[in-house]
Amino acid sequence: MNRRAFLQGLTGLAGALPRAGRAQGNRPPNIVFILADDLGWGDLGVYGHRQLQTPHLDRLAHQGTLFTQFYVNGSVCSPSRTAFTTGHYPARHRVHGHFAASDVNARRGMPNWLDPSVETLPRVLGKAGYATAHFGKWHLGSGQGAPEPKAYGFDDYRTVNAAGPTWDERDPFFRARSTELIVDETLRFAQKNRATPFYVNVWSLLPHALLNPTKEQLDRYPRLVLGRDAPGLRSALQIYYASVTALDDAIGRLLARLDEMGLADNTLVLFSSDNGPEDIHILNASHSGVGSAGPFRGRKRSLYEGGVRLPFLARWPRHVPAKRVDKESVATAVDFLPTLSHIAGTAPPAGWDLDGEDISDILAGKARPRAKPIFWEWRFNIAGEVHHHSPMLSMREGDWKLLMNPDRSRVELFDIPRDPMELNSLAGGRPELVARMAPRLLAWQKTLPQGPLDPGAGKNVYPWPGAAPP
Asked: How far apart are CA 75 and CA 441, in angstroms?
């Protein structure tokens, strides 16, 4: 069975969805996509955090729609970014983990960069008359011979983790100040292209470790200093919170300038994060890995909700409803390409086999069930406490989420709206659902390129006292 027949057999051909509201006249909206790095579902005030100061993102949520069931398609950065960019599940392109040194990529069965011949969102929008840009983190490939972002359809760019122009990263406070620099480039691009529709990625480095906030940023949280008995020592909370608030400050300046430039009313602003919060057991985050996954089990690298369920905010005055919280719709990163193409008045090339669906009607205020299931895979070990260690495969269809290993070990089934913390597996009580979903999940996995697996992938073994050594 080929991939197209497989997917059509799962979902059928969805009818055409109504077009999202268009701007006055013939000009489609500008699109600004802000992507945080390792920010958790629970790290914003509007998502329930009671200490972190995120007033600008909270205001963005009130001016538009907040989604509670938005998923990325990988539990680490490069896979997630591949999905946003291509509309494909990242494993289809052998992007299973983050792009690293070439020897590491080879051990993981990965290329050194995303194939530039694939269709991409900026290329589709560019053909529709959009000016396109990417500023900030890239992580879709680097190293000798790596293509620059222009090879993927970007007209203008300045990046980290990519070939091409960058900043002076030797400054010990570069990461702390980086979002301001990314915003500077974004505003330059917006001013230059204000007469035409534009699409721009604003992909922050924060709050990815290694975090080193400036004194001014740390001073926003004076009550989190460890105290006079620990001179010179900063708490992980102070470091992480200061970094997130610095991100929020820079986004606030971006949004204010778009308004001052007269662009806000015809600009669709989207905000999300690439994966769940980093685990404090990872060395470079051992001083700061206290991001919040909200109420969810799992963190970065996990297929439990905390690893792949992220904030998602959308604002487009008079088109995306304001002060709205959508608790029903299930959306995901691979939906970006079909959705934004539709809003821009164009379409992906015929034959580009998209994994996502057009959710422009959902952005316009229509909560509805999802037409397509969502699939995930993770082939490697997972850091941290064992209750975050998920099986290797996962699938969300309707209210149900199935997790399992390819050998059918660790079969777990959760009713997500009623058990969002994934504490009560119903696999034993609902065998008919497992019997229906498991073959689909395993069939999807067989469509993916084969590659190496970590020996501990999909396991949650704990060295209990008195147990035989592994």
From this structure: 18
pTM over 0.85: yes
Fold that domain 29-372 belongs to in CATH: Alkaline Phosphatase, subunit A (3.40.720)
CA angle 74, 202, 238 (to 5 degrees): 80
Interatomic CA distance for residues 439 and 282, integer angstroms: 35
Structure tokens at 177: 């100040």
Residue type, 433: L
Distances (CA, A) of 207 to 60, 212, 321, 381, 416: 19, 10, 29, 22, 27
> Which residues make Cβ contacts (< 8 Å) with residue 128, sequence separation at least 6?
28, 341, 344, 345, 346
Confirm whether 29-372 and 377-446 share one CATH topology.
no
pLDDT of residue 62: 98
Closest to 73 measured CA to CA, from 318, 336, 436, 253: 336
Could you give the residue numbers annotated as active site?
A: 77, 139
Percent of the chain with pLDDT over 70: 94
> Where do runs of H (alpha helix) occur along 301-355?
305-308, 336-343
DSSP conformation class of 141: B
- 38: buried, middle or exposed (CB in 10 Å: 19+, 13-18, 0-12)? buried
- Both tokens of 10, joined, read 């799962």
- Could you say which DSSP state residue 140 is in? S
Residue 24 has pLDDT above 50, yes or no: no
pLDDT tens readout for residues 283-322: 999 999 999 999 999 999 999 999 999 999 999 999 999 9
Q: What is the pLDDT of residue 391?
A: 98
Residue 9 pLDDT greater than 60, yes or no: no
As a whole number of angstroms, the distance between CA 452 and CA 108 comes to: 6
**Cβ(166)–Cβ(181) below 8 Å:** no
Residue with tokens 């509309």: 87
83, HSE (Cβ side, Cα atoms, 13 Å) = 32
Confidence (pLDDT) at 143: 87
Please give the backbone phi and psi of residue 365, each rounded to the nearest 5 degrees, phi first: 115, 5
The distance from CA 433 to its chain's CA centroid, rounded to whole angstroms, is 28
122-132 per-residue burial string, b: 16 or more CB within 10 A, e: under 16: bbbbbebebbb
Q: At the topology level of CATH, where does 377-446 sit?
A: Arylsulfatase, C-terminal domain (3.30.1120)
Rounded CA-CA distance 80/173 in Å is: 26
Confidence of residue 351 (pLDDT cuts 50, 70, 90): confident
Amino acid at 317: P
For the record, the structure tokens of 90 come out as 């990242």
pLDDT at residue 233, rounded to an integer: 82
Joined together, the tokens standing for residue 259 give 């308004």
Sequence ranges of the domains in the chain: 29-372, 377-446
Mean pLDDT of 33-56: 98
